[in-house]
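Hi P.,

Sorry for the delay on this. The queue was packed all week, but I finally got your sequence through. Input first:
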Amino acid sequence: MSLSKEEVKKVAGLARLRMNDEEMERLAPQLSNIIGFIEQLSELDTDNVEPLANVVDITLPLREDVVSDGNCGEEILANSQDANQGYFVVPKVIE
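Then the structure:
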């Protein structure tokens, strides 16, 4: 697939990138190559392939879920400009 300069400009706008005409001309073939590679990947048969979180079949050790440094709410609220009944007081943001 070949991307035109207008399509590159649209993608750049969506990504909030500011580009001049020279940069767009240079990036158009690069983006076309990337899209071509993705199209190649879509041709692969992945029906019997399970999704992986890791390419190596390992199990990571889990640590115990214990509370450490808890019960210090008053010390934390001491850093606040305003606190009330154990909670931070913040300005209203929705009217």
